[in-house]
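Trying the structure run again after the queue cleared.
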Amino acid sequence: MMVLGSQLWAVLTLQDYNTRVVVLGTAALGMAAGMIGTFMLLRKRALLGDALSHSALPGIAVAFLVMAGAGGSGKWLPGLLLGATLSGVLGIAWIVLIRSWTRLKEDAALGIVLSVLFGAGVALLGIIQHMASGSAAGLEGFIYGKPASMLQADAIAMAVTAAAIAVLCSVLFKELQLLCFDPGFARAQGWPVARLDWFLMALVTAVTVIGLQAVGLILVLALLVIPPAAARFWTERLWRMFVGSALIGALSGMVGASVSALVPRLPAGAIIVLVAAGIFLLSLLLAPQRGALPRLWRHGVLRRTVARQHLLRSLYEMSEPAGGRGGVPLSALLARRSWSAGELRRELRRARRQGLVQVVEGLVELTPPGLQQAQRLVRNHRLWELYLITHADVAASHVDRDADALEHVLGRQMVSELENLLSAQVRTEVPRSPHVLSEGTHAR
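Done. Tokens:
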């Protein structure tokens, strides 16, 4: 236990040189991928990184064959990265050509280029494996990634790439924002939309090629897509999403590399992606505005609020001749709307706990607080009905359903405007209904 604790402390404090290089290098890569991935996600080009990373494989294999044929070992890293870059750019050019010169959509072009070039790369790796002069051993690292073999020069290259992307995106933030949200307007205003698009693709290419050693061409896509997708759940502002995506990418790289350092048998590239996926899952579930659980909670609160308002309004309308103070039989209330008996009983229990209704000798009555709320609800409902009849030419026989759909979202400002518009027609606290109140079932 003490040994594990000392190892954990050593990893957290980055005491080991190799751990320090790998953790900081992958953090820089995650930050760079998160920043540029933000714009690619909003531009609806998220899978471009996938196509580019798969397109890099045949370039790596061709570069190996060229260097091996020239008498070298074929594994000189700068030459392999140059081949990956050229192959990736070629793949992007093919996507653009297919999209521009054919009727195929961009997703079809991505699928064609991705599958064809990746298949060519795998075939070339098979040829290299059977060459007498060399072996494909080590090239698989570009597919699956080998963060543990990262050198200081690799980490510095990733840090420089992240810094360059941060500076470039900050300088061109306004232009990139316009490109992502309204490229048609940007083109009409004279902005170089095509050059900005190629600029983004160049940055994606740089991140992809730099990240081949760290997480591999298959998993580099995850760092381009998952951090911005997770950050999107937390904000509606682009600059916050940009910063949040960079932080999530950096955190994924740091935590994933640290876990891999503690458990040597775990592949760092896969762990980095799993950490990013875990952050995405937490964002999906817990983000305050866009998260699934808060949205589910708000939906439940709204549904209960609407049901309570329907109950109070129905009670008031059915006892309106007595000023809303008469009792209503349960059977008549059940027939008033499309409630089931169980739903009505549940809503009555909630309203009783809130002190809004009471049941006396089988009759449901509004309490003074319930009567006050019911009068306000009925008044707002009828104000909206009068507005629709007077200003929207909606027939009185059809206005109840339209008003029923909107009465729950009328704020104070809207009610005040309705009062000003209808001042000549509203002379009482609760105006009379502009149509005959039906005794049958109302829409929920």
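Strands lie at 328-329, 357-360, 363-366. Worth checking whether this holds up in the mutant runs.
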